[in-house]
Amino acid sequence: MTNKKKLDSRVSLEDLILTSNRVGAVIESVRGTMLAPDARKRPPIFTTNQVATICGLEKSQMDYRIKKTELPVGNRESGHRRRFSLEDTRVWAQTERGKFMRPKSAEAITIAVANFKGGVTKTTTAVTLAQGLSLRGHKVLVIDTDPQGSMTTLFGLLPDVDVNDEQTILSLCYGTELSIDYAITPTYWSGIDIVPANLALYSAEFSLPSRQKAEANFEFWNVLNHGIDTARTNYDVIILDTSPSLSYLTINALLASDGLIMPLPPSTLDFTSSGQFWNLFNDLAANLVTNRGKSKSFDFVDVLLARVDANDASSSVVREWITAGYANMVLPVEIPKTSLTASASAEFGTVYDTDPTTINARTYRRAFDAYERVVELVEEQIVTAWKRQIGEQHGA
User: Fold this and answer.
1) What is the pLDDT of residues 323-366, one digit of tens each?
2) Same domain for 155 and 295?
3) Are 102 and 88 found together in one domain?
C-alpha cells in the first residue's frame, strides 16, 4: 500500500512526538515477531562437524574425545544426530585450542571498530567478530559507545526500552563511577557480556568537555581507557563499537584501544571519507597525546574491505586505491555484499545467528567463510599482541 504525501500539510513538534511513539511501537512489534516466542534472542546450536572444525579436529579425533574424555558430549536428537550447545562448544574450544588462549600474565586486547560514515557494516563487523572470537573460546566484553545503540540492538536489547542510563557508560563519563564494571550485562551469547547504549549517551558530548573545563588534571580522552582497567584482567578481548563520527566517545574508544579495525566499502565516497577520518584523528591525537609529551601506538590497524559487490566494475578500481593508500593494513579478505548479510541485519542478527538451512547454501558459505577468515586473522594479531605484552614484562 502506498501512502500519498500531502503537499500542503505542516508538521508540528507534537506530530513528531506521535511519530516517534508510533515508530517505537512498530520496532517493538517487529522484535516480538522476529524473536518469538519470548522476544529474546537465543544462541545457536552446533553439529559435531562444526565443533570439530572450530577446534581444528578431524571427525575421528572428535569421536575419540567424546568417548574417552570428560568433555561435553552434547545431546542426541531424533535420527541420532548429536548437537552441542554454545556453552559446550566453547568448553571444547578452550580445551582444544589452548595455544590461542590468553596467557595468565597478559591483559585483554581492546579493539575499536570505527569509521567516519554510517552504513559500512561497522556494527555488524564488531558483533560478528565478538561472536567468532567467543566461539573460539575467548571471553569477550563488548561496549557500545554509539548513542544509537545498534550493537545493543544486535544483542537483542532495544536501547530505549530495555536499557536504562545506569547500564551505559554514562556514569563513567559523569565521574560518578570510575570502573566500567557497574554496567556489564550478560547477553544471550555465552562468553559475551555487554555494556549497552541508549540515546542518553549523547549527553556525554556535553559532560566530558564540561568536566575538562572544570576539573584540574582531567583528561576527557582517557575516561574509558581508565574505566576498563579491571575489565582488562577479567576478559580476553574487549570490542568497542563507535558512532560514525569523531565524537568525544569515539575519541575515548580509539585511544583506549590496542587495535583498530575500519570496515571500508570500495566506493569513492567511502574511500575519501576514510582519508578525512584519519586526518582528523591524527590532528586530535597530536593535540591530546604527542604535544603533551606522551605516546600512543597500536598493536594493529586493519582495513577491512566490506560490502564488496563482485559485479560492480568501479569497485575494482577503488580497491586498487585502497590497497595503494593503506598498503599492508588491508586485510587479505573481503566481505561480500550478499542477501544473507542484509537479511541477517533485518532480523537483528549476524551470519553466526543465521540458520544455514534457511538460505541458499552458496550464499551462506560465501558470507560465513569471509567472516570466519576475518576472525582468524584478527585472532592471530591478538595472540601476537599477548606475546608482545609478555615480552615487555620480561624486558625483551
Assistant:
1) 999 999 999 999 998 776 555 554 567 889 887 777 777 888 88
2) yes
3) no
